[in-house]
Specification:
Elements lengths: L10 H21 L8 H12 L8 E2 H8 L7 H10 L12 E4 L19 E4 L3 H4 L10 E3 L6 E3 L8 H4 L2 E4 L4 E4 L4 H13 L19 E4 L1 H10 L1 E7 L1 E5 L4 E6 L6 H13 L6 E6 L8 E5 L5 H11 L3 E7 L1 E4 L2 E4 L2 H41 L2 H10 L6 H9 L3 H8 L8 H8 L1 H16 L2 H19 L6 E4 L16 E7 L3 E6 H6 L11 E8 L3 E6 L4 E5 L13 E2 H4 L8 E7 L5 E6 L3 E6 L11 E2 L9 E7 L4 E6 L3 E6 L14 E2 L9 E6 L8 H4 L9 E2 L2 H4 L9
Helix pairs in contact: 2-3, 3-4, 7-17, 11-14, 11-15, 11-16, 11-17, 12-13, 13-14
Length: 727
């Protein structure tokens, strides 16, 4: 067959013969943890250390451990060492580390803090590993050949507590993944005990919430936690802990979510500063040292630290989510289980371990009892035994002669024959056979326990209590209930400050912070353009923009970009997508929609509309029929309280009236009430505030009742008055 020939094969067959074995290998042998809480790589490493005597002995170089582990795990020394690093106390990634370490093992919360080479670090098994390997030599679990058949290794470790829930574990397989969070050891043991005593027990009463070595806070949402406990899937939020140093005006972040790193947090904060989304921070420093993690934020004066942190929680990984996927290998099959499901499988596993351990102990004690019963027969005639041994000419006949002489079997005879001559005395034999009754009692007790699942569960409960007492620690992750966290909206996170708005004739809008305006008051405008209105407000205020098409547009001022006096501003036709021929003729800023809108029309009518009529719950951006279209609009103004205004007619008549005489309306397009009567076809040409008119004798033009025709303008007032209001 030519080397260039192509063999056709169905894609299904190709996947079955090539891809599926690979996928199953990854799932079963690498990525998914089993009921003992370990992946194969973890188990091989820890078992190697156990066989090296590192549970009770002193530390050894990590390089030695890595080298020995390769007998079980031939995947490269660096891969093994990286696995070792994560299991160490020095790295801090686990609530209860398996490895006691010395040297630089990096930190799980740092992306850039690298661990030292294995020749520089030292390790031994941590004390808690006694619970992982307990009774391993008593046939509690199965052993299999290693990859080359030169030695045996355990399939699982007979851990005396639900280790699967105590230390977090993540893995990505082919087509599936696993992400198991960690829980407090004491709470896990209490939950397991509660389940052993009553399978219908409420686990959440004992297992409060996940717990992480990083500390921080978990935002407790009962619905989410219950879902995770019941299904093994779901998510919850973690957030950092911080304190405010008032003296130095800085925030110190000292605990962060388990799912992030200090570098990721700092990168996020720096990006926010560069993008001008955060203005309160002067400097960001990583001050992590031997005392622990610390990120310091230097603040500007008068910064509210809690409000700033809420911003950072929203926009950085200082608040992060942990997505749970409790996918575990059970008897070689991946299963996603809730907490009770995991406890059920662990209890079944642990019961089997106890049964095998008891069976082993019964066998060992029975063998010993059998030998001692044979020795007891020798006690009846010690001299006879010595005589048989002395008088037997051939060594091979000693055992048969003892068997025949005392009616014992070969095992018993060999046991007797191995006793030193000096011990073939009554005292020695009596001391040995005195154990017979206690052995019988112990065997009966073990058999009784073996035959009772209830008693086996009591053994497991006792072990759990011992583990909790011996290794239990207080929670590291604080629980804060979701309802106790003040809801922070996007608007809450917006910086508030005083500003000034400028509306130009050519329909440009300038939004300038007062601090910026003080430094550069000179306004740049287009040629032939002019400012027609100035309004003060705050960045969180609502902006109402009234157009000549009887429409009002609504914006949040923080949605409008700040600009400088030296810029032209924002062209409103583009910002609001105005219709052809539509222009903005008036703007006002408001926080609480207090006051009234005053509309004056050419027909002499004036409408007084409650500003709350423009407030909408749905935050609509555009409202039609913002004012009446029955007559030409000649005046528009926003007042907070009633004022006196001056109306001008086409007959050169003037009328001073009080807006309190006009009843307010909630209907936006109300035609208003007649203020200036028409005479001989006259129209109202404008309205001004008293202080803007230059009129000297207000009382002359003032009227108590409306409508009124008004009074002819005095000659001395006419010289100072600018009648032109709107072109």
């Amino acid at each position: 067959m030519s080397s260039n020939s192509v063999i056709e094969q169905k894609i299904v067959d190709t996947l079955e013969s090539n891809y599926m074995p690979y996928a199953m290998s990854v799932i079963l042998s690498r990525a998914i943890p089993e009921i003992d809480g370990l992946k194969p790589s973890h188990r091989k490493l820890l078992y190697t250390m156990y066989k090296m005597g590192l549970l009770t002995g002193g530390r050894t170089k990590s390089a030695n451990v890595v080298g020995q582990t390769m007998k079980l795990n031939p995947h490269g020394d660096m891969a093994i060492y990286e696995t070792l690093v994560r299991l160490t106390r020095g790295n801090g990634a686990l609530l209860h580390p398996y490895v006691d370490s010395k040297g630089n093992f990096g930190k799980y919360y740092s992306r850039d803090m690298k661990f030292a080479a294995p020749r520089y670090t030292e390790v031994k098994l941590d004390k808690i590993c006694e619970e992982l390997f307990k009774d391993l030599d008593k046939n509690t679990v199965d052993f299999v050949d290693n990859y080359d058949g030169t030695m045996k290794e355990p399939v699982l470790l007979p851990t005396t507590y639900p280790n699967i829930l105590v230390n977090s574990n993540q893995g990505i397989a082919v087509g599936m993944a696993s992400n198991i969070c960690s829980f407090n050891l004491i709470e896990v043991c209490d939950a397991a005990i509660a389940y052993l005593e009553d399978e219908d027990a409420d686990i959440s009463e004992h297992l409060k919430a996940p717990d992480f070595p990083s500390g921080g806070q978990i935002i407790y949402n009962k619905k989410n936690i219950e879902r995770i406990y019941n299904t093994g899937r779901g998510s919850f939020k973690l957030r950092a802990k911080y304190r405010f140093d008032k003296e130095n005006n800085c925030i110190e972040i000292f605990e962060i979510p388990y799912t992030t790193t200090t570098e990721a947090i700092m990168d996020g904060i720096i990006t926010l500063i560069k993008d001008n989304k955060i203005k309160e921070i002067v400097d960001v420093r990583d001050e992590t040292d031997l005392k622990g993690l610390k990120i310091t934020l230097d603040l500007k004066k008068n910064t509210e630290p809690d409000i700033l942190m809420e911003k950072l929680f929203r926009f950085t990984t200082l608040e992060d989510s942990f997505n749970c996927n409790f996918n575990i290998l059970i008897n070689g099959r991946p299963k996603v289980l809730g907490i009770k499901g995991i406890l059920k499988e662990w209890v079944l596993f642990r019961i089997e371990c106890i049964k095998r351990q008891i069976t082993y102990d019964i066998g060992k004690k029975s063998d010993k009892l059998h030998l001692l019963l044979g020795l007891k027969k020798i006690l009846l005639d010690i001299d006879k035994a010595i005589k048989i041994i002395r008088n037997t000419e051939e060594d091979a006949l000693v055992i048969p002669n003892l068997m025949e002489g005392f009616g014992i079997d070969r095992q018993q005879a060999e046991f007797v024959a191995e006793i030193k001559l000096r011990n073939l005395n009554k005292e020695y034999i009596l001391n040995r056979v005195s154990e017979i009754e206690s052995l019988k009692s112990s065997i009966e007790e073990l058999k009784d326990t073996l035959g009772s699942e209830k008693k086996i569960k009591k053994v497991i409960i006792k072990q759990l209590k011992d583990v909790a007492k011996k290794y239990g620690k207080p929670r590291k992750t604080e629980i804060i209930h979701e309802e106790h966290i003040e809801e922070i909206t996007h608007e809450n996170l917006i910086e508030d400050y005083n500003l000034k708005l400028f509306l130009t004739k050519e329909n440009y809008l300038k939004k300038i912070p007062l601090t910026s305006l003080r430094g550069n008051p000179e306004q740049k405008l287009k040629e032939d353009d002019e400012i027609i209105q100035e309004v003060e407000g705050r960045n969180k205020s609502d902006l109402l923009l009234f157009s000549n098409k009887h429409t009002v547009y609504k914006l949040k001022l923080f949605e409008v970009e700040d600009c400088k006096a030296s810029s032209l501003g924002i062209y409103l036709a583009n910002l609001l997508e105005l219709e052809e021929g539509e222009e903005i003729i008036y703007i006002t800023a408001t926080d609480e929609y207090k006051g009234y809108m005053i509309f004056g029309f050419e027909n002499g009518k004036v409408a007084k509309i409650d500003l709350k009529s423009y407030e909408t719950k749905t935050n609509r951006k555009k409202l039609a029929n913002a004012y009446s279209d029955t007559s030409k609009l000649i005046y528009i103004s926003h007042i907070l309280e009633d004022v006196e205004l001056v109306a001008f007619s086409s007959l050169n008549k003037v009328l001073v009236f009080d807006t309190s005489k006009i009843n307010p309306k909630t209907t936006r397009n109300s035609q208003g009430v007649q203020v200036l009567k028409s005479k001989n076809g006259s129209t109202m040409t404008g309205i001004k505030a008293l202080e803007d008119t230059g009129i000297k004798d207000f009382d002359y033009y003032r009227t108590k009742n409306i409508p009124a025709v008004g009074y002819y303008l005095k000659e001395e007032d006419e010289e100072d008055i600018q009648l032109r209001i709107l072109d």
